[in-house]
Amino acid sequence: MSALPRAHELGLIGCHVCGLVCRDTPMDDAACPRCGSALHRRKTASYARTWALLIAGFLLYIPANVLPIMRTASLGDVDDNTIISGVMELWNKGSPDLAVIVFTASILVPMTKFFVLTTLLVSARRGSNWARPQRAKLYRLVEFIGYWSMLDVFVVALLTALVQFGIFSLVAPLPGVIFFGLTVVLTMLASMSFDPRLIWDGRTDDD
């Protein structure tokens, strides 16, 4: 079975912003007719930028887990909670749904993104032919869960509503939230910087 033609062989190029498929032109300043963004055949320095953003995000994820992310007070008991202790606190205070949301958004989602992006980067560098369709699906998974990455930060804000129901008498964000928010932003930028076309052609450069 012959290989399907690629976009550059058909004279086509996709917009990185809105996804519109456009006619490829030799012009260096070609722009998307829909959104006006500059058109590029490849994401510039995709491999290096993705590694840099991913490593920076992982380094910030350490203090995000070590430092407290919120302060809760109930019946005179004041606690500064890290992500894990905050999950346990919510569970013990009768909010298992919020505990599951925080655990998923703060632990499962970031670790999944770190693992998937590292796998994609290593396999792309090696030019591996292994499970290309599955790796492409993994990349789409990272893009999808990226929309929910800030959920944990929002939960800390939403916890203030529980004060009205008497579950907590005080809820306040602490510095750990800042590091976690920075981790989320960097991992989102890392997934955006990765060029999924490296999965299919096995290239190790970014031209």
From TrEMBL:
Q: Name one GO cellular component term.
A: plasma membrane
Q: Which UniProt keywords apply?
A: Cell inner membrane, Cell membrane, Membrane, Transmembrane, Transmembrane helix
Q: Subcellular location, in the record's words?
A: Cell inner membrane
| Pfam families listed in its UniProt record | PqiA
Mind telling me which residue stretches traverse the membrane in this protein? Answer: 51-70, 98-123, 144-168, 174-194
Superkingdom per UniProt: Bacteria
Q: Per its record, how is this protein called by name?
A: Paraquat-inducible protein A
Organism field: Rhodanobacter glycinis
